[in-house]
Design brief:
Length: 346
């Protein structure tokens, strides 16, 4: 019995002795944790930044493609491209941007060059002709009217919309404390072809066509032959009467859209984005801005437009540079260019 009690006592002492950690062991454990934790934090941050960089690059690339695809698809239907002249700017001044983001103060239409080049390395290229906005009118619909004035005649009247792409400032802080920009697309309601309507010599038939257009919610007319804004616009009423509307604005309920709208933080941290400012204003810009125009203050920023060629086959160049900035060290950028063929028949 005595031997057994000594044996039990020895076991208890052994268990008690091994139940705790020595000071050396605690110091070693603390040292290991102090080494591992910062490494883990760095790895996690590097992983997050990597995902954020990838996310930002993919997002701005996709947004840029969508923007230029939208412009391209609309230019295909163009009938008249407005340029930076007094008469064409008068048309631009008839649109209203009320309740919408304002365009930047240096917004400027391009100058159309009938015989020149879209290459900045060509002798025929003039950077002074490059703008940073795009304004044109295109074919949108054809109204097919059957049985006008009680007859079996089928009447077809073309409809047009005015489309305007322009830069708006965004972010009070901007990219690295520099203002960036977004692109807005403004679109008018449908305007029926005034010349086609008034080409009907029968007054009764003309009035009935106008009444039918009115009942189809097309109350505005545009005369594509006019280069002066004064005689280019008309309205019709429910009685089919046609009136000049030279003092009215081009109506906008056709719709307006912010063209670059990205949901950030999908696979990483959040980031800011926008059309890049000029490289002279923002030295951190990873792309050269401008590439075609001559920089003047904040003009043109990373949205450049040039138009070249004869009226029946204009070539419209649009360059868009979108950049992003966030927790990542690098500044992702998407630099894309399209050249669209467009008609300018009027």
């Amino acid at each position: 019995m005595l031997k057994n009690s000594h044996f039990v006592s020895a076991i208890k002492k052994s268990v008690k002795k091994s139940s705790g950690m020595t000071m050396i062991e605690l110091l070693m454990a603390g040292t290991i944790v102090a080494i591992i934790v910062p490494i883990m934090v760095l790895l996690i941050n590097a992983t997050i930044n990597g995902f954020t960089t990838f996310d930002a690059q993919q997002q701005i690339k996709g947004a840029n493609q969508q923007l230029l695809n939208n412009i391209y698809s609309n230019l295909v239907l163009s009938k008249r491209i407005f340029q930076n002249t007094a008469s064409d700017n008068a048309f631009l001044n008839k649109i209203s941007l009320s309740n919408l983001p304002s365009r930047i103060s240096t917004s400027q239409l391009p100058v159309i060059v009938s015989s020149g080049s879209l290459s900045p390395n060509s002798a025929g290229f003039n950077p002074a002709n490059v703008g940073n906005s795009l304004f044109f009118v295109g074919h949108s619909t054809t109204s097919i009217l059957n049985g006008v004035a009680g007859s079996t005649t089928t009447v077809m009247i073309d409809g047009y919309t005015f489309i305007y792409y322009y830069l708006t400032p965004q972010y009070s802080a901007g990219l690295l404390r520099t203002t960036s920009y977004n692109v807005y697309r403004w679109e008018s309601v449908t305007y029926a072809d005034y010349q086609q309507l008034t080409s009907f010599s029968n007054t009764t038939e003309q009035k009935n066509i106008a009444k039918q257009l009115y009942s189809d919610n097309i109350t505005n007319l545009f005369d594509p032959s006019q280069t002066s804004v004064t005689n280019a616009f008309y309205t019709v009423n429910s009685a089919g009467a046609i009136s000049s509307s030279s003092n009215n604005l081009i109506n906008n309920p056709g719709g307006s859209k912010l063209m670059i709208n990205i949901i950030t933080g999908i696979t990483g941290g959040g980031f800011r984005y926008g059309i890049a400012p000029n490289s002279s204003i923002w030295p951190s810009n990873p792309k050269t801005v401008p590439l075609y125009a001559t920089a003047s203050g904040v003009f043109p920023a990373g949205f450049e437009v040039a138009v070249e060629g004869q009226a029946g086959g204009r070539q419209v160049l649009v360059r868009s540079v979108i950049v992003a900035q966030g927790s990542m060290k690098a500044i992702p950028a998407s630099d894309q260019v399209i050249i669209a063929s467009a008609t300018d028949l009027w």
